[in-house]
Design goal:
Strand content of chain A: 5-15%
Radius of gyration of chain A: 21 Å
Largest interface: A-B, 81 and 81 residues
Shape of chain A: globular
Distance between the termini of chain A: 48 Å
Order of helices and strands of chain A: HEHHEHEHEEEHEHEEEHHHEEHEEEH
Number of helices of chain A: 12
Structural class of chain A: alpha/beta
Helix content of chain A: 25-40%
Largest sheet of chain A: 7 strands, mixed
Oligomer: homodimer
Chain lengths: 397, 397
Amino acid sequence: MSDFQHLLSQRTQSMQRNQIREILKVVSQPGMVSLAGGIPAEESFPIEAMYKINEAVLDRYGAAALQYDRTEGFAPFLEALAGYLAGKGITANPDELLVFNGSQNVLDTLGKVLLSPGDCIALESPSYLGALSAFGAYQPTYVSIASDEDGVLPEALESALERQAIKFIYLVTTFQNPTGRSMSRARRQQIADIIKRKNALVIEDDPYSDLRYHGEVVPALQTYAPDNTVYVSTLSKIFAPGLRLGFCLAPPLIREWLCTAKQGADLHSNSYAQALATEYICSGYINRQIPNIIALYAPRQAAMLEAMDAHIPAGYRWIKPEGGMFIWIEGPPDVDGEALYWRAVEQKVAFVPGKFFYIDPSEGLSTMRLNFTRVDEAAIKRAIATLGRVIREYSPD
Amino acid sequence: MSDFQHLLSQRTQSMQRNQIREILKVVSQPGMVSLAGGIPAEESFPIEAMYKINEAVLDRYGAAALQYDRTEGFAPFLEALAGYLAGKGITANPDELLVFNGSQNVLDTLGKVLLSPGDCIALESPSYLGALSAFGAYQPTYVSIASDEDGVLPEALESALERQAIKFIYLVTTFQNPTGRSMSRARRQQIADIIKRKNALVIEDDPYSDLRYHGEVVPALQTYAPDNTVYVSTLSKIFAPGLRLGFCLAPPLIREWLCTAKQGADLHSNSYAQALATEYICSGYINRQIPNIIALYAPRQAAMLEAMDAHIPAGYRWIKPEGGMFIWIEGPPDVDGEALYWRAVEQKVAFVPGKFFYIDPSEGLSTMRLNFTRVDEAAIKRAIATLGRVIREYSPD
């Protein structure tokens, strides 16, 4: 057997396997109630509709849905996406959009086009871990921007932009993963003013904004600073993640290079999946399905928050997001979230210790991320009661 | 409008747009007969079967075909691929395979995992252009290995491996794009002996071997040197390219890093497309469809070769491949293939000037690549008659 270690590139050394996967291996044990996931419920998929959607795609597009296609995306899908975005208040021509294999693939290609080794990315802290795994392959450095409940702090962002050259700022603006937090309307305006003034570039990752259970819609940061924002989104949370359909709306120069990079990387994204999504959007399935998904998730979130009020002891804090997939708990400073994790797992309840979402390994030690989308209300209530007991019985060393 | 030129990475400067696309823009003119393509005929897609395949996938896999999945690939598809490969004499366990978004995406990820800037790749000359566009993003250098009609020359490969450090050797071993050539059985053995002796790594790209119209099957190079080969293939030529399904069989260390890189780049490939392909393979559609595809293409190839014998003047040479999608013509040394291209285009016949498939811009100036898969026999005969006339009327300056 040959050893090819010497053939690996320098960049493989900065690729990281998902650390969370290691610790979560126990989650597949029988009887475990997992609040650790970050993925949609199977019941949220429009399986019955898929029979009709498939037929319509074959009838309408035939061979075009099976043939090679343009790198930019399947033309009817780009049209459909422009219409979908208009419904969110985002103005986009179809020819300003690019289709990718999920939003993860947009992040990877942005890294490829923008990052030379050592380049600096500004991140809110904590951050979406998948973005770090996409960017990490291009050997960047990171700077954390402090946040409060309304999102990244304007003064922290501004001083970071003044202190060093920053390639881009990466933000999940609405119902963030892992914290569930949303940037307030006023904060969006402040952040947009700064990035325009500094001619900075923001990557706004927006997978969750359609999953709003109450409260008022807040427009995308992109709408406040369209020339300075790459808006990234996905159909994974409102149609089906297995189809791997993400997309972006980017300033012209960046869009052009993203397209060139994508041509080299995989020619184009799956045309058949794009045709399915076109039918899903244009024949109105999406407008019936998003309310179904909300009707599934909103009671689960409510059940979790209610159970937390009843069972999680004083000293632990959480905000109550108006949507999304996560609740974020901050324990008292001396609590070790990973120690709590292992005790909870013994009691057959899993979550994700929040420390994994921080760049700085000394941060977030007392935090926990809880997901409510894949477990029903009764199981959520029991799991939170168990977690409350584990927390009360635990005393930091 | 902001100018973000200064934000681009060093690597974007080595990304090349497909030069062929520029010159081929005229091909979409009305009345043009294009022998320039490199893609399957629409009639080769199993559109009628797709209605049933879709239903079977939804019945059998349901939500699993729509949910997030493992990076490695959809488990039933990995099983199906192992069976398909066994039919080609290639021994693979499902857990030695990885699924990608077309074979282009395997090549890109191999570049990501193996290439640091300046690393050297050995290529047969001429080479598949898509591979250069995948590898190019990782800033390699290239060395051309001379070939004859049986494939790369053993002594040329051996001396290249001795002269410099070579990360890998990239070869399309059967019905190569652009030449249609196949490496002979004896040559495979010789090349395998060299790469094993030198502990070198070969990427064997094999998209065309199922499109064999006559002659005897030649086993993959992989079977002669399994520990030193990354075998890359695709369902694009035998099912549907729009589904973007490629895969590889790689030595363990390389497979492991490919999987880590893919996780960061797009989490996993489209599960729904993988489920469709599983059904296509396991329910026997593939065994009926490949003969249909051959029955479509073989007469087109025969018509082209026959018309060439009748119309292409002495001094022009070509081999007669036993399969694939291309015929390669070498004109006398003073012929300018691009000048011929523009004259042929005036007569409404397009092909690809062969010089685009060479690294060295001084090579292949008199060559032409002709595709026969997307045009029917009658149109092929007329087009070759026209091309013959263009050639006879052309005299090099």
